[in-house]
Design a protein that fits this description.
518 residues; alpha+beta; 10-stranded antiparallel beta sheet
């Protein structure tokens, strides 16, 4: 059961992996992508690394969108050692052909990273920022992809520049995400006026680490992003830090300006091809976590006019992973075999620019050599071209559900446990009010005490017969009903009821405001 939790002596392995003093961290990266419009790949969730299926990964991240996705695992080696280079890795030939029947491909990469011990890795001292280009369903064209890339450059660049260039570490950044509309004043502060949100919109969400000794950095970051938002017509919201507020509650700094946004789009229309991308390349930049590394990558892509359709950036055990889906330029959309490559970052970015640059070379700006930036030691993993199913990823009836859990790593008597996100998704799909569903985002961490803590975002398409006004009531019934059924199944698998915490809600703030099933 490669994606389950059936391993020998899991608690001991987890504790050793989480506390190992080695500066080296092992990683697996998997890319999934459709090579035909009919392909239906879905990256599985689960904490078992493909190259080490008998032990749990210390940290796991899965991101799935438009028939493409990324799946990452990190863990410490059982025998501490220091490899010769800062990043060593390779593409791992699959046991079966890379391009499989069913119209999709998957590529597996593995390696080792020597981590940076000075990189801040503390989500307790952090703040979140939401930058919104559009609150409608995510369906970008080539112009939008450039604007998303420029918004990504602005966010990462601002984080790297504050504090006289000392910067703030980016712990997490993702796009698209569910955009947030601030309820009007007639609603109470408990969120009772919040309508069900769009599952994915053209919005970017960033989590940055804070320096308690210098609180001015947070204000400087917000000021810099507010200037960007005002200039481009973006919306900007920050974590509501007032007493009693929880994650998922936002404070509006700048509201979206559609007229200004349309002006910025018009400026690019003459430079960028019309239409929506029909081919894309999946990229993962991996290296030791360093402040400014993602800003250097974002600046390089933006300078070469490479668009961005989606990004999922995270720090796992001090290793920085920047996962991006970039559109292939129409002029380079020639029929070619899908494949994977592992390249040094400078060589990789050059190859990406040749295939994915959306403008002529003379229309690009000066590109700063990546070798002189904090990202110089990173490597690039590339898979493609793949065929993203843009329209299928953002159905008008798709609704986001947020899931959190805290469970023991193993059940009593060593019984095998199914993956929590897959168990919840299966239960949702079995419900009569749900048509289709998927796991958009999944992150889990094994702590030294032998427990698994995780969060996920799932998207469900409700039955077409449910009226728009009935959606909130339907979701309010669906979530606790699914909770009860999943908890019952976990109890039958041998997990004591008092040892588990699980919560599913259609309003993210409810994960922190309401008690979990325990």
């Amino acid at each position: 059961m490669a994606d389950g939790w059936q391993y020998p002596a899991l608690a001991a392995v987890a504790a050793r992996a989480a506390t190992a003093g080695s500066p080296a961290v092992l990683f697996n990266v998997q890319h999934y992508g459709a090579r035909t419009p009919t392909g239906r790949p879905a990256p599985p969730t689960g904490i078992a690394p493909p190259t080490a299926p008998d032990q749990p990964a210390t940290e796991t991240l899965t991101f799935h969108l438009a028939g493409t996705g990324f799946r990452l695992h990190t863990w410490a080696p059982e025998t501490p050692s220091v490899p010769a280079g800062e990043v060593s890795g390779r593409r791992i030939p699959p046991r079966v052909p890379s391009v499989e029947d069913g119209g999709f491909t998957k590529e597996l990469y593995g390696g080792t990273v020597v981590i940076n011990p000075n990189f801040l890795y503390d989500t307790a001292q952090s703040t979140e920022i939401l930058l919104t280009l559009s609150q409608e369903a995510w369906l970008p064209d080539f112009v939008d992809s450039l604007l998303i890339g420029r918004a990504y450059r602005a966010m990462t660049g601002a984080a790297a520049a504050v504090g006289d260039g000392q910067g703030m570490p980016i712990l997490f950044l993702q796009s698209p995400v569910a955009p947030y509309r601030i309820p009007t004043r007639r609603y109470r502060d408990d969120g009772s006026g919040e309508n069900p949100r769009v599952a994915n919109g053209m919005a970017l969400r960033m989590l940055v680490g804070l320096d308690g000794a210098d609180p001015t950095r947070r204000l400087a970051l917000v000021r810099a992003l507010a200037d960007t938002a005002l200039d481009s017509g973006f919306g900007l919201q920050v974590t509501d830090r007032r007493f009693g507020r929880v994650r998922g509650e936002w404070w509006a700094v700048v509201r979206p300006d559609q007229n200004r946004y349309d002006e910025r789009r018009a400026e690019l229309t003459q430079l960028v091809p019309a239409g929506r991308p029909s081919a894309a390349r999946l990229l993962t930049f991996v290296g030791a976590g360093r402040v400014g590394s993602s800003a250097a990558i974002a600046a390089d892509l933006a300078a070469r006019n490479v668009g961005i359709l989606a990004v999922a950036e995270a720090s796992l055990q001090g290793v920085a992973f920047v996962n991006v889906m970039v559109p292939v330029a129409p002029a380079r959309q020639v029929s070619k075999a899908v494949g994977g490559t592992y390249l040094p970052i400078a060589q990789g970015l050059g190859a990406v620019a040749s295939e994915c640059g959306l403008t002529k070379r003379q229309d690009t700006t000066d590109v700063r050599p990546i070798g002189g930036t904090p990202a110089a030691s990173s490597a690039m993993l590339s898979t493609g071209p793949v065929t993203p199913r843009l329209a299928d990823a953002v159905g008008p009836a798709d609704r986001p559900l947020w899931l959190s859990w805290d469970l023991p790593l193993t059940a009593s008597a060593g019984a095998a446990l199914p993956d929590v996100a897959q168990l919840v998704l299966s239960q949702l799909l079995a419900d009569e009010v749900v048509g289709t569903g998927r796991v958009d985002y999944y992150r889990a961490r094994v702590v030294p005490s032998g427990r698994v803590r995780g969060r996920a975002k799932l998207s469900v398409d409700l039955d077409a017969g449910i009226g728009q006004t009935d959606v909130p009531t339907t979701l309010s019934v669906l979530c606790p009903r699914t909770e009860r059924e999943v908890v019952s199944k976990l109890v039958r698998h041998g997990v004591p009821l008092r040892s588990m915490s699980l919560r599913l809600a259609w309003r993210e703030r409810w994960l922190g405001r309401a008690g979990s099933v325990t």
